[in-house]
């Protein structure tokens, strides 16, 4: 009688362990789906940001060319000996201002390129983390769990695969990185719009 009670207890414990594992697997799948959806959204954000960067860069380059042409015209005028001293002073001031503006715009272009490279790197890192998460779902450690035999209860043991360990901690860490990258994208888009309106011609 005691043996039968022990076998029933072991069978119940095995069922509880199996249920826990199934719940963990379901949680893991939901977390992976959410991460994949977030990654897809961030890819779209990056694409929009790159398009904004391209337009802003072209606009700035066009303005730089206009400034360079104006600077060259002013230099040509400065070489004309018939200019009065007051006109020459104004032209020199204007030349100085245009030169400073040119330097600022070139600095903006370098900053935009740096931001783009940073975003691309973060996206590649997120894709790598997602691949690791998918790889962990196909392999893992195993635990021994009691099972109920078809003819007699609970004297045998079998292995049940554990698809992941500490899933909550790992997923939370990845979400933190995803959110951080998304925040960086938003900041970058703001900078792009700000640069496009900075120092208008």
Automatic annotation (TrEMBL):
Coiled-coil region(s): 109-136
- Cite the record's Polar residues compositional bias ranges: 1-10
What Pfam families does UniProt report for this protein, alphabetically?
Golgin_A5 (PF09787)
**Keywords from the UniProt entry:** Coiled coil, Golgi apparatus, Membrane, Transmembrane, Transmembrane helix
Q: Compositional bias (Basic and acidic residues) at which positions?
A: 25-36
Q: Record's Gene Ontology CC terms?
A: Golgi cisterna; Golgi membrane
Q: Where in the cell is it found?
A: Golgi apparatus membrane
Instruction: Cite the residue spans of the region called Disordered.
Output: 1-36
Q: Which domain of life is it from?
A: Eukaryota
Instruction: Report how it sits in the membrane.
Output: Single-pass type IV membrane protein
Tell me the GO BP annotations in alphabetical order: Golgi organization; retrograde transport, vesicle recycling within Golgi
Q: Per its database record, what is this protein's job?
A: Involved in maintaining Golgi structure. Stimulates the formation of Golgi stacks and ribbons. Involved in intra-Golgi retrograde transport.
Matching PANTHER family, A to Z?
GOLGIN SUBFAMILY A MEMBER 5, GOLGIN-84
Q: What is this protein called?
A: Golgin subfamily A member 5
Q: Which organism is it from?
A: Engystomops pustulosus (Tungara frog)
């Amino acid at each position: 009688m005691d043996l039968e009670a022990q076998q029933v207890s072991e069978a119940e414990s095995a069922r509880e362990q199996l249920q826990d594992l199934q719940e963990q697997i379901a949680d893991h799948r939901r977390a992976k789906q959410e991460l994949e959806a977030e990654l897809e959204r961030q890819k779209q954000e990056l694409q929009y940001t790159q398009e904004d960067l391209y337009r802003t860069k072209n606009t700035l380059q066009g303005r730089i060319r206009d400034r360079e042409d104006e600077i060259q015209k002013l230099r040509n005028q400065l070489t004309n000996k018939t200019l009065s001293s007051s006109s020459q002073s104004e032209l020199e001031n204007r030349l100085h201002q245009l030169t400073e503006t040119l330097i600022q715009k070139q600095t903006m272009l370098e900053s935009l390129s740096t931001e783009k490279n940073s975003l691309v790197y973060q996206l590649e890192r997120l894709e790598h983390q997602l691949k690791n998460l998918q790889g962990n779902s196909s392999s893992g450690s195993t635990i021994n769990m009691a099972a109920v035999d078809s003819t007699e209860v609970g004297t045998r043991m079998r292995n049940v695969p554990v698809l992941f360990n500490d899933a909550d901690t790992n997923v939370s860490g990845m979400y933190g990185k995803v959110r951080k990258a998304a925040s960086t994208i938003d900041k970058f888009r703001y900078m792009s719009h700000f640069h496009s309106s900075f120092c208008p011609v």
